[in-house]
Write a structure and sequence with these properties.
The structure holds two protein chains of two kinds.
Chain A: H1 3-18, H2 22-39, H3 48-62, E1 76-78, E2 83-85, H4 87-110, H5 118-137, H6 141-159, H7 166-197, H8 202-212, H9 218-239, H10 247-254, H11 257-283, E3 291-295, H12 298-306, E4 322-326, H13 327-330, H14 332-357, H15 363-380, H16 382-388, H17 393-428, H18 439-442, H19 444-458, H20 464-483, H21 486-515, H22 532-546, H23 551-563
Antiparallel strand pairs in A: 1-2, 3-4
Helix pairs in contact in A: 2-3, 2-5, 3-4, 4-5, 4-11, 4-17, 4-23, 5-6, 5-11, 6-7, 6-11, 7-9, 7-10, 8-11, 9-14, 10-15, 11-14, 11-15, 11-17, 12-14, 14-15, 14-16, 14-21, 15-17, 15-21, 16-17, 16-20, 17-19, 17-20, 17-22, 17-23, 19-21, 19-22, 20-21
Chain B: H1 4-31, H2 35-62, H3 66-74, E1 84-94, E2 98-106, H4 108-131, H5 163-181, E3 185-192, E4 198-202, H6 205-224, H7 228-246, H8 253-284, E5 292-294, E6 297-299, H9 302-305, E7 307-308, H10 313-324, H11 330-338, H12 353-359, H13 367-376, H14 382-398, E8 405-406, E9 408-409, H15 412-418, H16 420-430, H17 434-447, H18 455-472, H19 481-484, H20 490-499, H21 501-511, H22 518-541, H23 545-565, H24 569-597, H25 613-627, E10 630-631, E11 635-636, H26 638-657, H27 660-688, H28 695-700, H29 705-720, E12 725-726, E13 729-730, H30 735-740, E14 751-753, E15 760-761, H31 770-796, H32 802-808, H33 810-817, H34 822-896, H35 902-930
Parallel strand pairs in B: 8-14
Antiparallel strand pairs in B: 1-2, 3-4, 5-6, 7-9, 10-11, 12-13, 14-15
Helix pairs in contact in B: 1-2, 1-6, 2-4, 2-6, 4-6, 4-20, 4-24, 4-29, 6-7, 7-8, 8-15, 8-18, 10-11, 11-17, 12-13, 14-26, 16-17, 18-21, 18-22, 20-24, 21-23, 21-24, 22-23, 22-27, 22-33, 23-24, 23-26, 23-27, 24-25, 24-26, 24-29, 25-26, 25-27, 25-29, 26-27, 26-31, 27-31
Classes of the chains: A mainly alpha, B mainly alpha.
Chain lengths: 567, 931
């Protein structure tokens, strides 16, 4: 192949890829537009919010969420395999962009950022969103790192959005430093993995692993495990999974509720998408039932090899016979490793988040721990996915669609909660839970919306949170039945106990707002009737209350979305 | 046609919307002084429903082939109409094919019912806007004519003659002054408070329309219902609406007890209905009327599942052979005997010799007739019968159809339910599945000459369903609630208790007709004829104008039931429609009268034609209609067509079956027709003709045009709704033709024969034979004229003296005056014993159980106090608090890691990764063994 051919091929590839890349292109265009308009001092004449909202809506439309219906999207690698488009990409990307639209409306109503800041802030928001869109579609180690940074760096600045507030700037700085540390660790892991498999393209890595896993030496396997761990650190940072969550409470406390909503929802959805991408990327090759020559002995040995300590415990199985094993069977140890690692992290994260939330007095800090716990719940879905991907597609599909459903639900309930916090801050200039006492008297609509959001976060039926949790837990139970792996049962139990634990601190807030007398000296003047806030809140809260009636179409949609990914 | 279910569904839901509007906004609007808004919303809602219904009617007429088919019907040809059935929403599915859904079943009957109900409801809404105005705040009242509303309105017929006067004298002018003080309030003169004053309450104008809207929704839903379960739900909904409306003046003792009575009596009927539903569910596995197709899976509805023997004469012949020759092979039996024919077609009389021998009649009489004669031990002139038979048959054959007597095939589910052991034994013996076994067992049973398995269940199911209809349509013996229901406001009586809800029982009987086996039909006919006669006789002596109409309603419903029971499907339903129009007209007219003179007692009226001429003449038209007046064979009022049709069917039934008992149906019905004519004109003469018997009331009487023009519209319908032709053009869309289009396929052009009873239910088409129509029409006209003349002689010309007759027939008079002592009978039989048992049980409860419970409660309290003190507070609470404390401090401890020190955080990345590595080690080494 000469250079000309190569260029021609590249050009072809790029033009074909661009049609799938339209949402991102629109985001880029909006960023450019926002920056350029400032140059020409156009913002006096034009509220840039309108540019932003128009851009986000167009971008959302270009993400074409309806394509997924009926499972009509084939897995397509674009830009020479850097990115991948399938139903899952489209669905998660659409969720993120839909959230962007809702978020922009939210900021407009709550009034932060003000019109002076808005071009900067929206530029940052769009930049971060672009990174998130790339995260859910990345198919290459380099792309993964770039996408994470693309999403993270604007977030650091966003955290310090409230200029001149000491706490905000401090939060931004902490976030940036912590993020840098995590990124470094992750980069190290990426380089180890790339070095081991001499590729950065995820499916290639998977093939490499499938071929070589059996023949790897103990030290190589140790490095493999380490690389996996280190990459997971970077992801855990984005997910605010314990023990890499330390930035979260401080950043959530320091920055305003709007940014909290953005960080806790969009960023988390993207990180989960990326987690799925990596997990499936290196642990499974879709549509490939090609056989590789491998030692039968390799099966247990590989797992043992992941841990040199336990190697002696494994007895070699009979004679090592050359036998045909498919790629996806060969990758089972990799999937088990990822599944167990994530399960472990999920359990710790969930439990820690719920317990630490107990003693919080600041609503944003409480919600920060709540989002940590929810990250744990969502990560739980990865374990059944990984454990049954090679053996039982139905269960794997259930797990992944459950995760997707949870994300959808989570968008609405968490956005609702943070929106209430922001609106109440505008009225009483406080974010302490104690100041919310007796709020139902003065602002019944807002309080009812918050209570609904909180109930939904607990997972009380018939609210949407219950459905999300149910889908995830059900897939864990299914996977346990299918594989009989004990850790899945433990995971299920931990999930259940945690749900019960979380009841306390969510309901405490509800109790304070509804049942306690208003504190002395707190202004309880009647909140003006049904303003834009109320409309917005109702629009956000209604889906959580009504999802149970539209369970079938939504469920059908998420199942369609994950079909192409794992068949 | 595809839009019909949407249009009709919408027509059903609009009144529901108005109901919710009144429910949520009614009181607020009253506070704001806009109490009329709710009423207007309800009225507009029903107007829209009516428009949609008319639109549906036109769409139906223009629907695929319907118009051609109607014209074909007119020419006496066979025409096939398709009912539209389907589901709006599936409520639940149980197993493979059992499901409950909100469905619809639309045929011409549905469309006609919709049109009729919404039309009458609209008129009544408009009428009530004026009629109910004393529920408005006082400044909107029209006080100019009579100072107190509703005074002297009689709750019961038993009170003494001067009751009304007393009322009036006592409160006449005080109220005038009181009104001034209580502008906002409605003063209920029927309710006396403890301190002797009258109850004053807020007006409930909107509440009335709220209940009326809910009623309209329920009634339309009942008509639209696509399955029996849904029917039952709406059935109960109309029941509760009726309860609300009868008890509208809830503070009046009579009204609240009447509401209770109506509700409780209806529960008795509904109990039977639930049993019927259970039998149907068991036997057919579905509640749907029509077939439905969901996701390509076709499920048969009740009407398709209930099989009758094919009306092909050869099939019946085959079956007879199977019957006669016991040695027929098994497979033949399975085929032939499932469609068993115990009765035979007259045209194949001679074929089966053994039957004739059984009957012991050598005349060429049918088996049925022969047995019949045996039963009654009475020889009838066989020759006559045979003749009439042949006659009827020839007529039947005119339209080119063989009239085979058909019988219902017992569905498999019921066979299995009633002969489970036999079926199981057969299954084990032959190793076949349940369905085949059921068929074989059934075939064997029939072959041996027994009653088919499950047939009794079919009868019970049918009677069960009919029990519901007895309650709702106030048939004997549950008719006692309807007269009391007249405690409700008159528009309610007009809409709910004459035109629509009480007709729902008839409607359901008609809708369910194919499901009724002949034995059930016999029960229906007997109940109907008893009802029509008893109620008609009671109406003769009633003096409360609304009670006359109430008993008349019961009697007319009895006509419809009897007609249905005798196989006169079209006649019964036609009478339902015509009755709805003239009876609502009569009720609204009586309302107008009551509104004018403020009493229900006809003895206080007289000569009112001068004061309220519009009401007078519209009511006269209604009286003509209900009496069935007409010029024989030329044209008549609507009642002329429907009542004659009923009498024709009764006559036809008599002619086919012969004997005294079948004849009683016809003669009682004919006598009832004469009585009907008599009491209706008695009412009219007493009210409008002669000298005023209470001058003061007469002087104050006044007519409101707002209330009269709905009467005029109804009068037009009462006259012309059943007309079959205009000039020389036979109307293809005449009412009877439209209803005919809905005739269930199973009973079309066939005679029906029972298994247990030996009667034959003649095909209704046979009753159009000239040899039937001619005498019956003349007789019916004669009865109407006799009734009219008698009434005129007694109450107009005074040629005969009423009190003379009263004294001469003292015992009969007392029987009728006391309404055959039904209330007293039920009081003694049921109410008192129930009270006694209740008291006894209460005594047991109080003396024994309460004592025991009290004692044990004391012991338990002492124990629980101790428990609380020592175990609960110390041990349980202690432990719980300690654990909660632990968790809380754990949480506090965990969040203490959050120091805010960024250097430490970054350090934690390293520590975390390391810890994770160690944890993974532990985690994995334990799971490796499992791997």
């Amino acid at each position: 192949m000469n250079l000309q051919q190569l260029i021609k091929q590249l050009a072809n590839d790029s033009t074909e890829s661009l049609s799938w890349f339209l949402p991102e292109i629109v985001l880029c265009a909006v960023i450019m537009l926002l920056l350029l308009v400032r140059l020409f001092d156009g913002k006096q004449r034009l509220d840039l919010w309108f540019v932003a909202i128009a851009g986000s809506v167009v971008s959302f439309l270009f993400s074409q969420p309806w394509l997924v219906c009926g499972g009509g999207v084939e897995r397509t690698e674009i830009f020479t395999g850097l990115l991948v488009i399938d139903g899952f990409t489209i669905a998660v990307r659409s969720i993120i962009l839909l959230f962007l639209v809702l978020f922009l409306v939210f900021t407009k109503i709550s009034g932060i950022p003000d019109s002076d800041d808005s071009p900067d802030i929206y530029t940052l928001v769009f930049g971060a969103t672009l990174g998130m869109c790339l995260m859910v579609s990345s198919n290459h180690l380099l792309m993964i790192f770039l996408a994470i940074e693309m999403a993270s760096v604007p977030s650091y600045a966003l955290a310090g959005m409230l200029k001149g507030r000491k706490r905000g700037s401090e939060a931004a700085l902490k976030y940036a430093i912590y993020g840098a540390g995590a990124a470094g660790v992750m980069l190290y892991g990426i380089s180890l993995l790339a070095g081991l498999t001499s590729s950065a393209h995820l499916p290639t890595i998977a093939l490499q692993l499938a071929e070589n896993l059996g023949t790897m030496s103990g030290s190589e396997q140790l490095v493999l495990v380490l690389s996996g761990l280190l990459i997971s650190v970077g992801l855990a940072f984005k997910l605010s999974a314990v023990p890499f969550h330390f930035w979260a409470p401080d950043v959530f406390h320091g920055s305003c509720a709007e940014v909290n909503a953005f960080l806790s929802i969009a960023s988390k959805a993207a990180a989960l998408g990326l987690l799925v991408r990596i997990g499936i990327g290196v642990g499974y090759v879709p549509g490939l039932e090609q056989e590789v020559a491998q030692d039968v002995e390799a099966g247990p040995a590989v797992v043992a090899g992941l841990l040199p300590v336990a190697e002696e415990a494994i007895e070699p199985i009979e004679d090592s016979v050359e036998q045909e094993v498919t790629v996806n069977e060969a990758l089972q140890p990799v999937r088990d490793f990822i599944g167990k690692l994530i399960a472990l992290l999920a359990m710790i994260t969930c439990t820690f988040g719920n317990l630490a939330a107990y003693s919080q007095t600041n609503i944003k800090r409480l919600l920060a721990y709540s989002t940590i716990a929810h990250a744990g719940y969502m990560m739980m879905a990865i374990a059944p996915l990984m454990s049954s991907l090679g053996s039982d597609y139905g269960v794997a599909e259930g797990a992944l669609s459950g995760l997707l459903l949870y994300i959808v639900v989570y968008v609405f309930m968490n956005l609702g909660a943070f929106a209430v916090v922001a609106f109440l801050r505008n009225y009483i200039a406080s974010e302490e839970i104690a100041d919310y006492s007796g709020m139902i008297r003065s602002r019944p609509y807002i309080v009812i919306c918050l209570v609904l959001a909180l109930f939904s976060l607990v997972g009380l039926p018939p609210l949407a949170g219950f459905l999300g949790k149910f889908a995830v837990f059900a897939s864990i139970a299914d996977a346990f039945r299918a594989t009989d792996a004990t850790y899945l049962l433990v995971l299920l139990l931990v999930g259940g106990v945690n749900t019960a634990l979380s009841l306390y601190y969510y309901l405490r807030v509800a109790k304070i707002m509804v049942m306690e007398e208003p504190a002395e000296g707190v202004d309880i003047e009647q909140y003006p009737k049904a303003g834009l806030e109320a409309v917005y809140l109702v629009a956000i809260t209604l889906p959580t209350a009504l999802l149970i009636f539209f369970w079938n179409p939504v469920h059908a949609y998420v199942v369609d979305a994950v079909k192409a990914l794992i068949s | 046609m595809d839009t019909l279910h949407i249009l009709l569904g919408l027509a059903t839901l609009i009144p529901l919307g108005a109901f919710f509007f009144n429910l949520t906004c009614g009181n607020k609007l009253r506070e704001a002084g806009k109490i009329r808004v709710g009423a207007y919303v309800s009225t507009i809602a029903i107007v829209f429903s009516a428009l949609l219904s008319f639109l549906s009617l036109f769409i139906w007429l223009g629907g695929a082939d319907n118009w051609e088919n109607l014209n074909a019907l007119l020419d006496g040809e066979h025409a096939h109409f398709h009912a539209i059935s389907g589901e709006y929403y599936v409520l639940g599915e149980f197993g493979d094919n059992l499901k409950l859904s909100i469905g619809y079943y639309i045929d011409s009957l549905t469309v006609c019912m919709f049109t009729m109900v919404t039309l009458i409801a609209t008129l009544i809404h408009i009428y009530a806007l004026k009629y109910m105005d004393d529920e408005l705040p006082a400044q909107e009242h029209d006080h100019s004519h009579f100072p107190w509303p509703w005074a002297g309105k009689h709750g019961h017929g038993e009170h003494d003659d001067h009751h009304g006067d007393d009322h009036h004298d006592d409160h006449g002018h005080d109220d005038h002054e009181e009104q001034g003080h209580f502008d906002e309030y409605y003063v209920d003169h029927e309710v006396v408070m403890e301190d002797g004053s009258h109850l004053k309450r807020r007006g409930r104008y909107h509440r009335f329309f709220q209940a009326l809207s809910l009623f309209c929704f329920s009634m339309l839903g009942l008509v639209l219902a696509g399955n029996v379960a849904m029917t039952f739900v709406f059935w109960e909904l109309v029941g509760i609406c009726s309860f609300f409306l009868i008890g509208f003046y809830v503070e009046r003792h009579s009204a609240s007890t009447a509401a209770n009575k109506a509700f409780i009596v209806n529960r008795v009927g509904d109990f039977g209905m639930i049993i019927g539903l259970m039998v149907i569910w068991t036997g057919f596995g579905t509640f749907d009327f029509g077939d439905s197709e969901v996701d390509g899976h076709k499920s048969l509805g009740l009407f398709s599942q209930i099989e009758r023997l094919a009306d092909d004469a050869h099939a019946s012949e085959d079956a007879q052979h199977a019957d006669a020759h016991a040695a027929a092979s098994n497979s033949e039996l399975a085929a032939g005997a499932l469609a068993f024919v115990a009765a035979e077609d007259e045209s194949h009389e001679g074929d089966t010799a053994d039957h004739d021998e059984d009957a012991g009649h050598d005349e060429s009489e049918s088996h049925e007739d022969g047995e019949h004669a045996d039963e009654h031990g009475e020889g009838h002139t066989d020759g006559d019968n045979a003749e009439s038979h042949a006659d009827g048959h020839d007529e039947g054959h005119d339209d080119g159809h063989d009239h085979a007597s058909v019988q219902v095939v017992v569905p498999e589910g019921l066979v299995i339910a009633s002969a489970r052991e036999e079926v199981n034994a057969y299954m084990q013996e032959h190793g076949v599945d349940q369905s085949v076994a059921a068929k074989a067992v059934q075939a064997k049973q029939i072959e041996e000459g027994g009653t088919p398995y499950g047939y009794w269940l079919l009868i019970i199911g049918g009677i069960g369903i009919f029990c519901g209809c007895i309650g709702k349509s106030a048939q004997f013996p549950l008719h006692v609630w309807l007269p009391d229901a007249m405690e409700g406001p008159t528009p309610v009586s007009a809409l709910v208790h004459s035109a629509t809800m009480v007709a729902a029982g008839v409607f359901l009987t008609g809708r369910f007709f194919p499901m009724f086996v002949p034995e059930v039909l016999l029960v229906i006919a007997v109940v109907g004829v008893i009802t029509l006669f008893i109620a008609a006789t009671i109406a003769i002596t009633a003096v409360d104008i609304k009670k006359v109409l109430a008993y008349s309603t019961i009697s007319q419903l009895g006509y419809m039931m009897m007609s249905l029971g005798l196989g006169g499907w079209l006649a019964g339903l036609l009478h339902l429609f015509t009755h709805a129009f003239f009876k609502s007209l009569l009720f609204m007219g009586s309302g107008s009268v009551i509104h004018a003179v403020h009493t229900n007692d006809m003895r206080e009226m007289g000569g009112l034609y001068k004061k309220i001429p519009g009401t007078c003449w519209t009511m006269f038209i209604a009286c003509l209609a209900i009496a069935g007046a007409g010029i024989p064979f030329v044209i008549g009022t609507s009642g002329y067509y429907s009542k004659d049709a009923i009498l024709e069917q009764a006559f036809s039934f008599w002619r086919v079956n012969g004997g005294i008992a079948p004849g009683l149906f016809f003669f009682l019905a004919a006598a009832g027709a004469a009585i009907t004519s008599f009491y209706m004109f008695r009412m009219w003469f007493m009210t409008f003709v002669g000298k005023p018997r209470n001058q003061e009331r007469f002087d104050h009487a006044h007519e409101y045009s707002k209330m009269v023009w709905p009467l005029v519209i109804l009068a037009v319908f009462a006259v012309g709704v059943a007309w079959k032709s205009v000039g020389f053009w036979d109307l293809p869309f005449s009412l009877s033709n439209m209803i005919e289009a809905s005739r269930p396929v199973a009973i079309s052009h066939v005679d029906q024969a029972g298994v247990i009873s030996s009667m034959v239910w003649p095909d209704e088409h046979a009753s159009h034979a000239w040899s039937i129509v001619f005498p019956v029409t003349l007789l019916a006209t004669a009865t109407a004229i006799i009734g009219f003349l008698l009434a005129a002689a007694f109450y107009w010309k005074r040629a005969l003296d009423v009190s003379d007759v009263k004294n001469n027939f003292e015992s009969i008079y007392r029987l009728l005056w006391n309404k055959w002592w039904f209330d007293e009978l039920y009081d003694t039989l049921f109410v008192r014993p129930a009270h006694k048992i209740g008291k006894f049980v209460a005594a047991i409860d109080k003396c024994i159980f309460d004592w025991l419970i009290d004692r044990s409660a004391v012991v338990l309290r002492a124990f629980s106090n101790l428990w609380n003190k020592y175990i609960d507070q110390k041990a349980v609470d202690g432990v719980a608090n300690v654990i909660a404390g632990w968790i809380h401090s754990l949480g506090r401890g965990l969040s203490r890691v959050q120091t805010g020190n960024v250097r430490q955080y970054v350090l934690f990345i390293a520590i975390g990764a390391l810890a994770l590595f160690l944890l993974i080690t532990v985690f994995f080494s334990s799971s490796i063994q499992a791997y």
